[in-house]
C-alpha cells in the first residue's frame, strides 16, 4: 500500500484535538495548512493561558494518546483493548491550532470574470467553493478531477470533530473571582473562534483541579457559574478532574471523557453525511468559481459528481465505524466509475487524469475489501478483490494500453500485496496462530487454518472456486511475487530503442512509446530496465525477494514446511541470478540444514540447493559450510557436474591460508540429517555370546563416493555401546602397501579399562578409503560381563590439514539383517546373517559346569509335614572352584518359606533366612560350600515345615562360584524344582442334639452355689445343661496309605457365655487309611450356660486335629507323626427356647415294638401349655393319647411316651406328633436324637423279614 497516498488507504477514525496539555505535534508532523488547503481565511484558535505542566498533566496526555486507534487491527474487535471505544485519532497541539479555510480565495483580477456575469464596473461576485474542490481554479483536480487525497487529510488531520481544552482549576479566596472571569473569557473566545470558522466542530473543556481545591467549599458554585457563563453542558461539554489521581484513575477518567464524547463525535460526522447526501440529492452540477480555459476543457460530469459524493459518504461512514454503510457507498462509487456512462468511458487513456481515476478506483476497491474483512466476510472480500481485478483487466484491454506490458504485471503484484497487507492488518481470527506447530492430535488441539471457510449466508450447495476463498497472507504474497517475476520478464523484453532516455530518442519514438507502455505507478521503460551504460533502474530482484520473504514468514508460522522450502529455493534463485551471494547464503544455509527433499529422495531439488550453497560458501569464504557441502556432494545421490573434481581433503585450497592452527574450522554432521558417502558398520558373528569366550566380530568400512573423486582418510572410527562394553575405537595407521581394491584383513584389538568405565577395545588400521572401495577388519571380542549389549552411536573423524570433520550417527537401529563379509578369491562376497547383530546382541553368563541334584525329592508333600531335602553339588569344571549355595522357596503370591540348614542349631550363623526377591546375585546371603576340587561332590541338607494350606512352591537352588584362576567373573548355576503340598484329608461334619441325662434345676429352689456366687470373674456354669452329638466323616485324599493315630477336637473360642466339655465316643487306635478311604468319628459336646438367665445364642469355633504318619517303621525318624488341623464350620447353638426331643428305643418284651419318648423342654421363665396331637397312619399303630394337653413350669421338662408298632417292613416309619403352644399358637418341630431321621416326622428304620 506504500505506492498509494496514505490518505487513500488508511482507515479513518474520529479526529480529536487535545489543547492545553503539551504540544506533541512534532511526533507525527503533517504538512502545513497552506500546502494542503491554501487560502487566506485560516482560523487560528489560541489562548493566552499557558499549557498545563506537571506530572498529572503528562500522565493524562499519555493516557489519552494510549487510546489512539491508529495502530489498532482493522476489525470490529479492535475496541476490546480500548474499553470498547470506537477508536480515535488524537493530536496534542498546545495552545495554538489552525483550522483551514472553508472557502477558497477569489481569483485574482487577471481578466477572468464569473460565468454568466454582466460586464459592469462593480466588483465581480464569485461563487466560492472549497480550496480542493474541482470547481475551484486553484485546486489540483480542477476542472474535471473527482477527488483529491487532501480532502481526506482535511477531515483526518486538520478539522477535528471535537476540540478539547484543558485548563487549571485552583482555589484561592483572593483570586478566585479573577481566575474564573479569565477562564470564562478564554472559553468563550475559543468557542467564538470555532464558530467563526463555520466548521461544526464540537467544543469541550476539562478543568484539572490542584490540591487547593480539596479544602474549598464553593467549588460547585464556581463550576455552576462557569457553566452558565459559557453555555457548556456539565454532562457532555464540561469535565472536572480531582487532584492527586493515580495512573489507573487518570486512565479511567480519559475513558470516561471519550465515552461521553463518542456519540458527540459520531453525530458530527453524521451531520457531514447529511450535508453530502443533500448535495447529491440536488441532481445538478454546481457552477465553478471560474470557468476552465475556454474551448479546451470541460468540468466534471454528473457521473463524476456521483462518484465524488458516494466516496465522501463512504469515508464519513468509516469515521462513524459503520462499515456496512461504507461498503455500500464504495460499491456505488465503483459501479459509477465502471458504468457505461462512467468517467472511465469518457476519459482518454493517454491523459494524466486517467491515472488519477485509476488511483481513486484502486483506493475505493481497497476500502471495499477492507470493509468486507471488517465485517468478517472473507469470501466476499476475496470475490470483491477478484471482481475488481477482472473488471480493470477488461477495461484496460478495451480502452487502455492493454495488459501485456510490465505496468499491468506490476499492478497485479501490487494488488495481491495489498490483499496480503489487508489480511494482516485485519488480524482475522480464522488465521490466528493458535499454538506452536507440534505433532499433537489435531482433533484435540486444533490446526492453523490455511484458508477461511465460506460465510454462513452463502448457500451450502453453491460451488465456489478455490480462488474465491480467502487464503492466508502467505498465499497473496506468493501471488504478488509471481507477478513481480512476470514484470521482470516483461521488462527484460523491452526493445533497446524503447529503453533509450527521452533526451536521446526522437520525439516520434517517445510519443509512440507512451502509447504502448502503461506507466501507472511504475517507472518509464528507460528507468524500469535501463541500458547497460545507464545508471539506476528498478531493483526487480529486491522486490521479488521481499515478497517471497514475507510469504515464507506466513507459511512458516503455519507449519507448511514444504511450501516454505519451495519459496526459499525460489528466493535463492532470485538472489543468485543477481549474484547477491551474501543474501543467498543466509537463505540457503537453513534450507540445506532442514530440507525435506533430502529425507524424501527429491534429489534434483536437493542438488540445486546443495550446489547453490556450495557456491555461496565459496564466495563468502565460509569454510565450514564449504567443507560440509563438499562432503555431501561426494555422494552419487546428488546431481554432479562433469568438470568439477571432488577432493574433500584439499577442498580448502582456494581459501586464504592465514593462521591454520588458530582458524582451523571444526564441522559436526549427523548422518541422520545429512547424506554420507562413507559407511561404517560393526557386526558380530552371532546374536549371543558368553562371558569370557571370544566372539568373532567384523568392521566394514565402505565408500559410495562419486567415481573420480579423491580418496578420504578417516582419522578415527568409534562404535559406542551400552552394556558390558564401552566402545570399540579404531585409529588410522598408514599402510604404504594399501591399494584401492576391496580387502579383508585380520587385526588385534587391545582391551583397556579405566574405573568406573566399561572396557574399551583399541586398534590401529589403515582407514584410507577410495571411491567404491570396501575395507573389512576381522577381530575377536571377549566380554567381561553378562547382559544386553546395545549400539548407541557410530562416529568417525577426518582430521585434515585445514579442517576437522566429525560425522556421527545415533540412529543405529535397523530391521534389516546384518551382513557378513567373506573372502572370495580376490574379491569380497557378502552374505546375510539370520539376525540383526549390528545393533543389539545378548551376552550370556559363562556356561556353568557345576551339577546340582535333589536325590530325595518327592513328587508331592502333605501340609504341615516336616520336610528335609538333600542338595548334592558336583564340581565338573576343569579346575577348583569356590562356591556358595542359595535356596529360595517361592509361592505364587511371592511369599516365602523359612528353612534351616541341617547340622546347624537355631543359634548358628549359618542358619538361612529367606533371601530378598529383588536383590542381585552377589548381594544375596548364601550358605558357604567352600572350595571344591575338580570332580568333588558335596551334599547339603535343608529342613522346613510344609505350609498349612495346599499350595505349590518353587524350590530355587542357585550355586554361585568362581574359578580359582579367574576370580573376577562370577558364574552361577540354578536348579528349579516344583514342590507340591496337598491336604491329606477332608472331612464333613453333622451336628445333632442329644438328651442330657442330668436333672434340671428347680425354678423354686435355685442351687446354693449360684445364689452365693458374688465373684464376677468366676467361670463356674450354673445354667441348663445340653448334650450334642458331632459326627465327622474323614476322607483320605492322599496318594498313598496313611496311618491315622488319633483324632481330637480343639476348641478355639466359645461365644455366648457358655462352658463346653468334649468327650470322644471312640477309642484311639492306629488305623490305616488307603486313598479315598472314609472314616467316621463321633464326639459328644456338653454345653452349659454360665448364667441361668442368659438368653444369648452360643457359637463354637472348633477344629479337628488328625494325627497321622506315613507307613513304615513307627520308630523311624524319617516318618515322624504329623498333626493336620481341619477347620470345622462355626457351630451355632440357638438361644434357650422351648423344644421337643424324640428318642426311640426298641421294646425289650414285645417284638417290633418301639417306644417313642417325646421330651418337651421349657428353659424359659414362663408357664407354658402345649397341645399334643399324634396323627394316625396306615404304616403303624400306636398306643397313647391321640390328643392331650401338657403344662410346663418354668425351667422344667416332661416326657411323653408313645408305643409304635410298625405295620410295614424294610422302610422308614415316621410318626407325626404335632406340638402346639396354646398361647403363641406356634408349632414346635420335633428333633430326633441319635439314629433317628428328621423330616416331616421323626423316622425309625424298620428292617425286613429275616
UniProtKB/TrEMBL annotation:
<feature type="compositionally biased region" description="Low complexity">
    <location>
        <begin position="106"/>
        <end position="131"/>
    </location>
</feature>
<feature type="domain" description="Gryzun putative trafficking through Golgi">
    <location>
        <begin position="667"/>
        <end position="1246"/>
    </location>
</feature>
<dbReference type="InterPro" id="IPR021773">
    <property type="entry name" value="TPC11"/>
</dbReference>
<feature type="region of interest" description="Disordered">
    <location>
        <begin position="274"/>
        <end position="301"/>
    </location>
</feature>
<feature type="domain" description="Trafficking protein particle complex subunit 11">
    <location>
        <begin position="353"/>
        <end position="635"/>
    </location>
</feature>
<feature type="region of interest" description="Disordered">
    <location>
        <begin position="99"/>
        <end position="132"/>
    </location>
</feature>
<dbReference type="Pfam" id="PF07919">
    <property type="entry name" value="Gryzun"/>
</dbReference>
<dbReference type="InterPro" id="IPR012880">
    <property type="entry name" value="Gryzun"/>
</dbReference>
<protein>
    <submittedName>
        <fullName>Gryzun, putative trafficking through golgi-domain-containing protein</fullName>
    </submittedName>
</protein>
<dbReference type="Pfam" id="PF11817">
    <property type="entry name" value="Foie-gras_1"/>
</dbReference>
